[in-house]
Amino acid sequence: MSRNSAPSPDRPAVAGPAPVAAPAPAPAVGRVPGPVALPAARRGPGRPVLGLLLLALAGLAALLVRRDVAHPPFQGLDERWLSWMGGPHDGLPAAVAAGLNWFGGPVGAVVPLALLALLCLRRRLVSAGFLLGAYLLGNMLVVQGLKHLVDRPRPADPLVRVDHGSFPSGHAAGAALLVVLVGALWVPVARRRAWWAGGAVFTLAMMWSRTWLHAHWLSDTAAGAAAGAGAGLLAWWLCAPALAREARADRVRGRRGAAALASEPAPEPVRP
Q1: Distance between CA 111 and CA 113 in Å, rounded?
Q2: 94: exposed, middle or buried (C-beta count within 10 Å: 0-12, 13-18, 19+)?
Q3: What rounded mean pLDDT belongs to the chain?
Q4: How far apart are CA 208 and CA 258, in angstroms?
Q5: What is the 3-state secondary structure (H, E, C) of 150-173?
């Protein structure tokens, strides 16, 4: 009879030992998990297209004003709006306008400087460089460049101290630029829609204050807001990959620090 004959129905076959799964290796004490793969930065066409469109609108308005600085095509609308801003210039509107005038002036630079210092303290040097470069280039290159190109006279009898050139409004440009830069660096994606809405209200308030103080024509403030927002959006799009790499590295450092704290042994209780 063959040794490999099938077992009899009266004698059930004896099953062999079940395979034992190898135990998973225990993690080494103090071992830090590797970097977590995060999605790459998205560079869609929305930001550069909108930024270039806003800059183009500001540039087109500058060319129209430069052809005849005393009587551009929209001078009638500017004068009508200025007549609505006649006054009286006191009470709560005066306080709001004075505060916005302070915020957009040289003293108001303390806000971006404070944000810059905070980024440096958190070792977000790429973000700090982006904030500094975009803020200086947007205000010095774009706004001051348009001012020297156009050199439009300001409305008569401004209520605050002003420099040369009414077009575009540096206060409105700085407000719109700051809204974009803070939204890019500090506001989470899920809350940016609310931030953009609040930033638009803030920029419109700045535009109103400049015309209420007779420091600018209405078209100056609209062009300034477009130039500031456009410069900020374009700079954000150009620097998005570097900002995303820094954000990923910052998150990985935070997770490694948390893992290192979790791996430390708990202190033994002190016995009396």
Answers
A1: 5
A2: middle
A3: 82
A4: 48
A5: HCCCCCCCCCCCCCCCCCCCHHHH
